[in-house]
């Protein structure tokens, strides 16, 4: 076994804990992947050792605590995203709340009294996610609103007689509606002009309004208080996106997470005025969830970084530093990322991260892998990546750009790649190549590119639009042709994706121009393609099409498939296989091994 494989095996064996959620008796639940996939674990309120509460091969999607000390969690089958809901009692085994393997059940919220839950279901029609309420004592479920298109149920009104329904017709528009459970008409809570996002609503106990994240008239998401039907009253408006918002049990304090150049910063605000309170310092990294303890004295949050997997931390609003609840042990020294910017073809400075290998650089400079995030309305974050750390250890530098269209840098930046401007973001990858080639520590003749999902499309687009630049490409479940993608992607996704990429009928000519399959005769470099066969988002045909064309032209291509994975590789043994294939592929084509 090579040194790279040994390091990869070591890094993959280090477990991560994510998505913490307190229950009403103070115990903390989270997802932990010590057994090979993310399962529900419990950290007792008395500080005792954690214990595993579920044991499945397929990963759990989420967990949330209940007032009685139990929990609700969701799990699909082999990555197909048809999530089923389960109730986990404080002691004993879980029982299924839903049992329809063909239906997607989207998690919503626990009712104020803890006796009911709200969720969405597309049982009526695969394209429409209706609003449902389930009685936990009896298991009886009923549809409370039929809706058109995908929706989320985000919160209960404090009296338990209505829920908030969230819609997102486009990437940067989301609206909130109040849905009474008595069958009367729903009303819009967020009337506004133009596109704006209204997210993460949290009711005030007296029912007068909600705290929420909003960007009405702004380039970034801020914190506001909204009385139904009125304009938001701003409380906290940094020149950066506020991405998380949770209200303390006594409703005096808001815990928020601010995205500062990709790094998460936990802050505490006065709930009435928005005044920032002194808060604890915490390690630099990425936070995906925050949960208040039932006594209101602290929050739990997860935190991952480029050099360490996600662990659990606890922060008290007036403490100097956060405390670790659960951190990975046995980590070897690993590289971090430097925040960088590089010039684009039209003079913009584009943000990103760069990591160089340790040791003496080769005379011609390090070979480089450019890793492109998916989305496109997403952001590459300084997150835990065992594969990229292994690639660095091999003597390959890693550049992770946030090209135009990425989130985290304002709405205007994120809209720079919409529809007919799509190829401008691909040109940004050529700009990244040009910037790297001009550096003395990078070898412009040995630059590869890798991405997943939409990032896989970016890889295919880059190798067709700029075929002379790339030494090799790695495509994880990328879109090869937009027409076939729209014909086979999950029906619940078509409207939202069409708003971002273009309408499959009205914009058919544009989408054909943006389809790498139609220009695959330009690809020169060796390719590695990997695909989960249950993927409901980017169906396997996309990978099969590009692989078939490349093989027919004699372009070296490797194709890996995973029968028990969907849109991503969630199981440790599957990650081991695909990451080992990637490192071997890059070793051959960037290092000549």
From TrEMBL:
SUPFAM superfamilies: alpha/beta-Hydrolases (SSF53474), DPP6 N-terminal domain-like (SSF82171). InterPro entries: 6-blade_b-propeller_TolB-like (IPR011042), AB_hydrolase_fold (IPR029058), Pept_S9_AS (IPR002471), Peptidase_S9_cat (IPR001375), Peptidase_S9A (IPR002470). Residues 388-590 form the Peptidase S9 prolyl oligopeptidase catalytic domain. The keyword Acetylation applies. The keyword Transcription regulation does not apply. Keywords: Acetylation, Hydrolase. Gene3D superfamilies: alpha/beta hydrolase, TolB, C-terminal domain. It comes from the Bacteria. Pfam families: Peptidase_S9 (PF00326). This enzyme catalyzes the hydrolysis of the N-terminal peptide bond of an N-acetylated peptide to generate an N-acetylated amino acid and a peptide with a free N-terminus. It preferentially cleaves off Ac-Ala, Ac-Met and Ac-Ser. Also, involved in the degradation of oxidized and glycated proteins. PANTHER family: DIPEPTIDYL PEPTIDASE FAMILY MEMBER 6 (PTHR42776:SF27), SERINE PEPTIDASE S9 FAMILY MEMBER (PTHR42776). This is Acyl-peptide hydrolase. It comes from Teichococcus vastitatis.
